[in-house]
Amino acid sequence: MTEMNFAEAMIDGLCVALDSDPSVSIIGRGISGHGAEAAADKRLAPYGDRVLDPPTSEAAVAMLALGASMSGLRMFLHFGTGVFAFEAWNQVVNEAANARYMSGGRLKSPVTFCMFHGLRNGGGPQHSASSQAMYANSPGLEVVMPASPADAKGLALTAIRSDNATVMLVHPSLLSLRADVPAGDYAVPFGQAAVRREGRDVTIVAFSRQVTEALKAAEILAKEGIDAEVLDPRTLVPLDEASILASVRKTGRLVVADETPVHYGCASEIAALVAEKGFGSLKAPVARVARPHTPVPFSPGMEAFLTPDAAKIADAVRRTLAA
Amino acid sequence: MTEMNFAEAMIDGLCVALDSDPSVSIIGRGISGHGAEAAADKRLAPYGDRVLDPPTSEAAVAMLALGASMSGLRMFLHFGTGVFAFEAWNQVVNEAANARYMSGGRLKSPVTFCMFHGLRNGGGPQHSASSQAMYANSPGLEVVMPASPADAKGLALTAIRSDNATVMLVHPSLLSLRADVPAGDYAVPFGQAAVRREGRDVTIVAFSRQVTEALKAAEILAKEGIDAEVLDPRTLVPLDEASILASVRKTGRLVVADETPVHYGCASEIAALVAEKGFGSLKAPVARVARPHTPVPFSPGMEAFLTPDAAKIADAVRRTLAA
Amino acid sequence: MADAAQGTVAPRKEDRLNKQERLALLECMLRIRRFEEGVIHLAMTPEYEYVGRQHLYIGAEGAGAGACLALGKDDLAHTTHRNHGYLVARGSDRMRMFAEILGRADGTNLGRGGSWHICDPDVGFRSTSAMVGGSIALAVGSAYALQKQKSKAISVAHFGDGTLDEGIGYEALNIASLFKLPVLFMCENNSKPGQRPSSMLAAKHLSHVPAALDMPTKAVNGADVEAVHLAAKEAVDHVRSGKGPYFLQADLERWPGSHQVHAAFPTGVTDISLAWDEGKIEGKNADWTRTYDPIRLYAKKLLGENAVTRDELTALDRKVADETDKLRATAVKSPFPPADAAAKQFA
Amino acid sequence: MADAAQGTVAPRKEDRLNKQERLALLECMLRIRRFEEGVIHLAMTPEYEYVGRQHLYIGAEGAGAGACLALGKDDLAHTTHRNHGYLVARGSDRMRMFAEILGRADGTNLGRGGSWHICDPDVGFRSTSAMVGGSIALAVGSAYALQKQKSKAISVAHFGDGTLDEGIGYEALNIASLFKLPVLFMCENNSKPGQRPSSMLAAKHLSHVPAALDMPTKAVNGADVEAVHLAAKEAVDHVRSGKGPYFLQADLERWPGSHQVHAAFPTGVTDISLAWDEGKIEGKNADWTRTYDPIRLYAKKLLGENAVTRDELTALDRKVADETDKLRATAVKSPFPPADAAAKQFA
Ligand SMILES: Cc1ncc(C[n+]2csc(CCOP(=O)(O)OP(=O)(O)O)c2C)c(N)n1
Ligand SMILES: Cc1ncc(C[n+]2csc(CCOP(=O)(O)OP(=O)(O)O)c2C)c(N)n1
Ligand SMILES: [Mg+2]
Ligand SMILES: [Mg+2]
């Protein structure tokens, strides 16, 4: 265990992958973002031409990564801001997602598409998208969202070693988050949720940065005598349905904290899962704390108004318990 | 009222738009598909250069339509198969969706992006996508799905006349559907669901082609003494939440029939809506009848296995009533 | 995009090819032709429950055979929706191809891909994309892998002129040239004025686009299998030697039947005797058969040069037709996969 | 993409420009420069609660002023993330621009867009896209509308060399050429070897790409405002006369401060006296100031030709600086919009 920030942990995972397998190759720059954490990228310099700085041609670069993955390399491609990956949409959700399946399993597609998502204080209408629900609605893709430094390392490693196309979404405001990270070869299996906090009264399922907000909310609520359980699914596809249902069976109440636009987003999937398979254990209406369904304005106050946070999560929990 | 098929009705709507407003301009070919109904397109020929056959450059063509819409034209662009629009993803969900809002309302973006979606008997892994949930998760877009000839005309007309970017998804297997269509200038307002069949025992919310399947299921169930209500939201964004909630208040039971992949899809949104705002009236678990979460195989039997239909909807209703 | 592109046609050095090589080219073209006629038969015979649409390679055999026979067995390829010809040319199991086109359990892709996505890594084929612009960019990816692996093999992108309408086609050409990747861009241009062309380029010649990206280009007559083959050999040598990508364009006259399932030959199916008995050429597609059918033209040429006899031609064609029929007959016996085999998310 | 592109620099016909026109060019550049210095001031003053990142136009004033002053009032434009210069040049309300950059209620976009998306239809600006490849394709769309409307106005796409990395940039050029749309492609090339360039093109010259698509192209020195202006006038005439699109490239030396918020001038902010008092030029960016600062170079040139006096220059600069300061001072008083104003899905 060493303490490091999220960006360092993710780069650490990439280095383990590079060191343990000569077929691993990376494309991208600014993997650690543009803030104080950007320095973490320096660790990749020694790998020379195994790390490519690509032209601004997202579609062809995504296909380069996919094609190379079919022909013997394990590719990790970082797009930068997630909206840039919209230029490679067909290439990720229609080419990469289908490649292995439609070959009858004769091809492998060990490619990871990584990107930043979310509201980031001034990103404005065109740089603030959280597109994880869209990827998760594209069969054939594995979709993962680390919320801690350890998971940043462990999920990146598992993604790179998976023979399926995987999409990994990182919230830039998590890059500076510090915590202990297991040293060496540490891989986190897909499809296993993490209980971030145990509780009896309500289940808060939270994704990505909202895990941090949910934990803050839980502290606030604890002072009011409300004991919240915080669950981090970590991977959207495959989703650990069993753990979510088990938690709701215990608490009888569900609040989902997520940054995708509220309609047709990730929170809706969790709510639907429980309404379908956990209905019997529900004592109150499900509550979604997500991004209101509107484009993202630049002005900071308006952006904050749209951003899910601890206070909004706590309010939703109180409403759920009052119901 | 004249009886015509879905393709003819849609083209009729386009002709009304073209005749009533000289600023209306169309891009695309094969709007009526490639089957027996394709002939309907012939009605567009007399409009000359107001109908453009574009190069295979979806991204730039989508932006051409958007840019032209900002500068005085009302654009209707048909992409053909929906996956082709994946090549214009950034242009539709990040440029068109945000354009009007981020200008502070100083620009209008009267552009309609139309396409075919869905399982179509042999489309295979790369031509069978139903991406309506993804568009509906992109704030700033209006998303509509006509399920009848009259709505094909009426929603197309409303979409063309809307000052917002609108995505219209058509299921090719609906093109041959015949029914009465109001003559002349007939526009269907967005955000108003249609009750296709009244019933007391269960609410079936169905989209696009699944409306037809839901009605078939209702007939089967009627013979068993089950009285199903079939609701067609017609527009995903804006969504007529009130009508859905009112129906469930009456029946206490909800089954959603939809062709998007089941996880993070349209059925999940309807289930979540009711679990959040209609929980009190629910007597049984919600059921989603949707596309299993897997790529689409070419082989007809396997494809059929994945396709939601009347029998699967009827089974879900029986399970819901048994619960 | 009507005219042939810049770059001169490869010097015709027939002497470079011995009889065996020339017969190999002819047989390869016949294999493709008879295979596609087999597909037409399957599509038109209700009992086989054929669904979907296929894009036939008939008329392009000169380009496919000429290019594929210039490749080594380790070379990788990515193809488009119109892929049958390349797979047949490189020796993919035709029985499994027929089965795949029918969505049967013995298909190359277990019935999951169908005509548009036939995949056969055993003969160098990676993913086949039905998205215009798909194969060219995937091929650049395989070339990237080969470069990193310091392999002597090269990657080939088979695609049509429509790929140059798509921005990704341009991006792929640029990246290949930028990083000197070992990829051969094999473009088949079948757009002609009058027809609704499959590309709408403002460029006077297709090859002006790769040329602007600092890449060697050449255009040849796709109906002349030897011209294509010799040019392809030069191109392959260039790429294999590490000099970077090469853009080879074969100009084709689209077979009138290339959109329909229905065969459109004067005699219903190909009749090799039209190579010497031209009086028999008739029907609404007689012009195409007379002027552009690459098989008839090559057979006629070989006869004219006394490189083969009519009997040899007839025997060769019969052999190919018979083996194709047998393989097709086996394929139709293959069962459909169990429906619930669909319920798999990945491999 | 280092070198200047093909096409010769426009013949320098100074005599074509009278004193008034020349001073207009200089004043326009000064307006842009002083505006951007104002943005730096806002970004560096905590009390204004500035967030986000802006891309400053400093160093490119020659290209922006030269091109924009060649346009008519009805001409339409689409711009990129680096858009301030064009809006200032065409007379957008600078107070509202400052307010927008701060996300205030009086902003051009009501604070919803910020620096990257400033929109002002009153002076011809349609949507400003921060996606590389956005403005070029939108401008083709506006040109399509103008063509259908049989308008005499033209559409202008302002974009950087990075746009040619994106396939959509190529698609947009092709479509404009294909349909002879009235659009001027105004490309600012600031990629230089050594720097991490903003484009990675295999083409020897940027303009080889539009040239391959059968479009006239020209390259000029972007630090020479008159060269840009004269070339832009020719290009605009070509496009307005219905001959189709034109690709004009201005080659620029990137201002060393173009990525940072912090000003990077020897004297902190622009000092017009450096035009005659070169001894004062110092600091780590002295080279840029001496050789590439388009404002200093033009002021020096006008002095050298006795077209203006030092006093006139000083007065002009002071006037612009003062008016800019006043507008900025008004903008910072604008309130933030009410937070819940965000909860709107459309306009
Ligand atoms: C991205 C995308 N857009 C549109 C299509 C529809 N489409 C199928 S084939 C075809 C024409 C392709 O032309 P070309 O590549 O020259 O191949 P050809 O059929 O002429 O051999 C088009 C546009 C597609 N498959 N993919
Ligand atoms: C589609 C897309 N990909 C990547 C980016 C990230 N990005 C922002 S500015 C920039 C460089 C643009 O270069 P250029 O267009 O030449 O403008 P310059 O900044 O050099 O003036 C890039 C790649 C983006 N904005 N959009
Ligand atoms: Mg073609
Ligand atoms: Mg640049």
Describe this structure in words.
The complex is a heterotetramer, with two copies of chain A (323 residues) and two copies of chain C (347 residues). Chain A is α/β, with parallel strands linked by helices. Chain A is built from ten helices and 14 strands. A seven-stranded mixed sheet of chain A has the order 3-2-4-5-7-6-12, sandwiched between helices. A five-stranded mixed sheet of chain A has the order 9-11-10-13-14, with helices on both faces. The longest helix of chain A has 15 residues, at 6-20. In chain A, 70% of the residues are buried. A six-stranded parallel sheet of chain C has the order 2-1-3-4-6-5, with helices on both faces. In chain C, helix 8 (225-240) links the parallel strand 5 (217-221) and strand 6 (246-251). The termini of chain C are far apart. In chain C, 60% of the residues are buried. The radius of gyration of chain C is 19 Å and the shape is globular. Chain C contains eleven helices and six strands. Chains in contact: A-B, A-C, A-D, B-C, B-D, C-D. Chains A and B meet through helix 3, helix 4 and helix 8 of A and helix 3, helix 4 and helix 8 of B. The structure holds thiamine diphosphate (TPP) (2 copies) and magnesium ion (2 copies). One magnesium ion binds at residues 160-162, 190-191, 198 of chain D. One thiamine diphosphate sits between chains C (55, 81-82, 130-133, 160-163, 190, 198-199) and B (56, 84, 87).
